[in-house]
Amino acid sequence: MENIANIVHIGELIAVSKVFELNPFQMISLIEDGLLEVFETKEDFLAKYGIKETYEELEDWCELNNGKVFTKPKVGSEYNSSH
Q1: What average pLDDT does range 55-83 have in this prediction?
Q2: What are the beta bridge partners of residue 73?
Q3: Beta-bridge partner residues of 62
Q4: How distant, in Å, are the alpha carbons of 9, 11, 23, 57 from that of 50?
Q5: What is the 3-state secondary structure (H, E, C) of 15-71?
Q6: How far is CA 77 from the centre of its chain?
Q7: C-beta separation of 73 from 80 below 8 A
Q8: Does this model's pTM top 0.90?
Q9: Mean pLDDT on 35-39
Q10: Mean pLDDT over all residues of the chain?
Q11: What distance lies between CA 78 and its chain's CA centroid?
């Protein structure tokens, strides 16, 4: 597993934690377990999930103003089991 600090900044975790209603420690644990995804760009996100009105396979997702996208796939989703 890549070092989480190389993937996300603490400020990003704090911002997204408000959306997902998780604390930064919980978010790090979910990222490490593959239950929370981080995409460097929206294009990376769209390459995996496509362009849709709604993303039924995601519990929630959040795009930051720097272009990173955080997703939380639904438990049991085919997308979640691919990690």
Answers
A1: 81
A2: 58
A3: 70
A4: 26, 27, 28, 12
A5: HHHHHHCCCHHHHHHHHHCCCCEEECCHHHHHHHHCCCCCCCCEEEEEECCCCCEEE
A6: 14
A7: yes
A8: no
A9: 94
A10: 88
A11: 15
